[in-house]
């Protein structure tokens, strides 16, 4: 109370000095790229970097349509920036590489964090949803994102614009999150002519060790650092969320996910994961993505009614080989659309070479995808993930 804030010129000089310190930290060496500068009284500025690159050979993926592809991809480049004005008022700004190779806004939200039990975020963020979406590509077990089953609508990389209230109760064992977002099909001619919001929510309970994640985010493995048994339910609803303006339908989704990870002492660690999804479009067929000239990040079209399942497992070998540990994994996904008698199935087999948890790992993954009789394909991916 009564504390004077720095003048604008002084604040500007402080910001410039902080940026210079950050850039100096980034240029010192790759290992020191993660950087936090504190200014006292709860003020700080942090910056970090994440990247995922891969080589993929896909069946019939070459331009000829009949030869295997040989593709080197920069799958993701993220710059993470966060700052705080006090212990309560904070903000996050993250970027991501889009399909054209340009950096664009991934997250941008103000954080009003009052206590473990009650907080409010406002801006562009991950809506409360399933574990896969809250893991994102950097914190899942397998290399590839489980897009066969995880199909909550989003603007870009699972994000949407809105607000979330979240907190952790019962000694942080119970995590809740509920949000209201801009939502799906807000474009002329599509279903949402009334600007109805998308409402989402998630409840997760930790029966063993509490999962150590920021806010309501998740991970699908802790590489044997914790004994985890977590069960969660998530859901979403939007009036007139699917279809056309002439024939709109309400969108609804519910999912249940579970994660079990057990340390086996000198025998390593085992991880098991499962999820069930149900997507409902009120008996209405949604418009196609790109409807009305919408961009690929406009959150328009593409929602399909159906039921989906995911089952996965991994085993972290105890022995260290060189600078890391091997973690073989398997995963099965299936999506049964209401409007088709053919399921989509995907089988993933692979191994992670874990150097420093989610911050440094190499992954090899073989996947087969079956979308119907005579419509199966396979691919092999070798990926590298780094976070600083």
From TrEMBL:
Q: Check the UniProt entry and state the signal peptide residues, or none.
A: 1-33
**Key words of the record:** Plasmid, Signal
Q: Which Pfam families does the entry mention?
A: Porin_O_P
Q: Which Gene3D superfamilies match?
A: Porin
The yes or no answer to whether the keyword tRNA processing is present is: no
Establish whether keyword Signal is in the entry: yes
Superkingdom of this entry's organism?
Bacteria
Name-wise, this protein is Porin
Q: Which organism is it from?
A: Niveispirillum cyanobacteriorum
